[in-house]
């Protein structure tokens, strides 16, 4: 079997037993990448040459190591809103087109300590605002299952490159669904950890109270493998929490017997596409056969989640994005006569239309006349949504729903209608609002396109959702089917 078809865990074991060298692994993935990348366009910055050099160094280093780390020699792609020292980090924005950070994000530092190999920086919707990568200032990434369709977003590049098996693992960020929705559209595993589980230090902020970094992989084991490395308290992120990190690779093997699944009645309505509904409920039945029990639950405030999210996220974004003013770093307009004009021309030319829309909504809902009516109200509803989850988790261990209302849509289909685009986050935003962890795994196909199932867990209980996901993967071996073969 070609090395590129293997999972990160399989490769890790082969490297540790010295059956293969990091350079052989990297070479195999590069060959696969050359075949698929011209069609899917997942990378903003392809680091092929850098990866080859790095792997060569690791070939030498391994001979001197007593203990070989789990991710040693494993190729990993990084979403281009995660800071990489010395490597351009654009956020797919003209504003940061030539920005080279002087420091690494904490997740990158941790991966470096392992001896991982960075393969490139992946495309996203500008500043992670969007659901399709069509808001990238550079180009749109294509879905490997159907090149006329979007890979989802905002982490579309990270999802597409893993789905096409041109890299076994990647990192994305999820503010309202940007890991889970593209994972669903691309037929892979995507995990949004609990808020505070993974350090946000070095993640370019979109909405700081919602953002989390998390992994994409073809298997649940691989998600567990990288979570073992990136999870945990970081003193440089005051919102990261000091909650013990279990060994996820051990946790996933535990039995699921006796665990309770909650199905929120608000998510399984008659409006839901019948095929999506059937596919997800069929997967739930399989889990029932494994000894899990199922009951209906209610998340009564979930119906306000989209509205709440699209007030809080833009409010925080408008504040976070104030730093891009042409003074400190990033793009600066060429012609201006005074400071005021420099600011406004820089921001007008540097930001795309979706980012501007969010800044306008955000400043509006925060302005003194409207703050109480919108922002403050949204914060109150946020608490209600959170309390719904607390109540639900008194009864059940995990909550299952579809990840998205439908499969991947066509490029251009929703780009002129922001509301339609926002509605594709209807099942994912609640987890960010409530800060809880959620994973999307493939559970079938509709019209030859992958369908995602979302499993949501209690705060800091990534272990249980990974465990349920792993059990399902043993029934439906979704990782065996690779597009563009
Ligand atoms: N699609 C959502 C948005 O546009 C979520 C984005 C994200 O999670 N980064 O805001």
UniProtKB/TrEMBL annotation:
InterPro entries: Amidase, Amidase_CS, Amidase_dom, AS_sf, GatA. The active site is at residues 79, 154, 178. GO terms for biological process: translation. Residues 24-466 form the Amidase domain. It comes from the Bacteria. It catalyses: L-glutamyl-tRNA(Gln) + L-glutamine + ATP + H2O = L-glutaminyl-tRNA(Gln) + L-glutamate + ADP + phosphate + H(+). The keyword Cell membrane does not apply. Heterotrimer of A, B and C subunits. Belongs to the amidase family. GatA subfamily. This is Glutamyl-tRNA(Gln) amidotransferase subunit A. It comes from Sulfurihydrogenibium azorense.
């Amino acid at each position: 079997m070609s090395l590129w078809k293997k999972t990160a865990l399989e490769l890790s074991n082969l490297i540790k037993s010295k059956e293969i060298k990091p350079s052989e692994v990297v070479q195999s993935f590069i060959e696969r990448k050359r075949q698929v990348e011209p069609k899917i366009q997942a990378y903003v910055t392809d680091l092929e040459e850098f990866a080859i050099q790095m792997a060569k160094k690791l070939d030498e280093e391994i001979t001197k190591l007593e203990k070989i780390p789990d991710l040693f020699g494993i190729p990993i792609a990084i979403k281009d809103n995660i800071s990489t020292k010395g490597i351009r980090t654009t956020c797919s924005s003209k504003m940061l087109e030539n920005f080279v950070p002087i420091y690494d994000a904490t997740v990158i530092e941790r991966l470096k300590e392992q001896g991982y190999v960075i393969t490139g920086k992946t495309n996203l919707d500008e500043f992670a605002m969007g659901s399709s990568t069509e808001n990238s200032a550079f180009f749109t990434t294509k879905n490997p299952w159907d090149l006329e369709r979007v890979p989802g977003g905002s982490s579309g590049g990270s999802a597409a490159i893993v789905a096409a098996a041109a890299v076994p693992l990647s990192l994305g960020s999820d503010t309202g669904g940007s890991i889970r929705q593209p994972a669903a559209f691309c037929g892979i595993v995507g995990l949004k950890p609990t808020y505070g589980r993974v350090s946000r230090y070095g993640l370019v902020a979109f909405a700081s109270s919602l953002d989390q970094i998390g992994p994409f992989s073809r298997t649940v084991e691989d998600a567990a493998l990288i979570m073992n490395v990136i999870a945990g308290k970081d003193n440089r992120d005051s919102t990261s929490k000091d909650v013990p990190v279990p060994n996820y690779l051990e946790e996933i093997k535990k039995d699921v017997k006796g665990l309770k699944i909650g199905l929120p009645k608000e998510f399984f309505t008659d409006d839901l596409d019948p095929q999506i509904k059937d596919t997800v409920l069929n997967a739930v039945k399989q889990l029932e056969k494994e000894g899990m029990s199922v009951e209906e639950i209610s998340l009564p405030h979930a119906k306000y989640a989209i509205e709440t999210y699209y007030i809080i996220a833009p409010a925080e974004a408008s504040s976070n994005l104030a730093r891009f003013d042409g003074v400190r770093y990033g793009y600066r307009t060429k012609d201006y006569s005074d400071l005021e004009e420099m600011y406004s021309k820089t921001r007008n030319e540097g930001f795309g239309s979706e980012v501007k829309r969010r800044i306008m909504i955000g400043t509006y809902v925060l302005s003194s006349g409207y703050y109480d009516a919108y922002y403050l109200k949204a914060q109150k509803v946020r608490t209600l949504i959170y309390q719904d989850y607390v109540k639900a988790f008194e009864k059940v261990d995990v909550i299952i729903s579809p990840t998205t209302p439908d499969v991947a849509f066509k490029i251009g289909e929703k780009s002129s209608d922001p509301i339609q685009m926002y509605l594709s986050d209807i099942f994912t935003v609640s987890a960010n609002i409530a800060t809880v962890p959620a994973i999307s795994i493939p559970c079938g196909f509709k019209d030859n396109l992958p369908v995602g199932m979302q499993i949501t867990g209690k705060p800091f209980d990534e272990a249980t959702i990974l465990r349920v996901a792993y059990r399902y993967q043993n029934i439906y071996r979704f990782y065996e089917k690779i597009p563009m073969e």
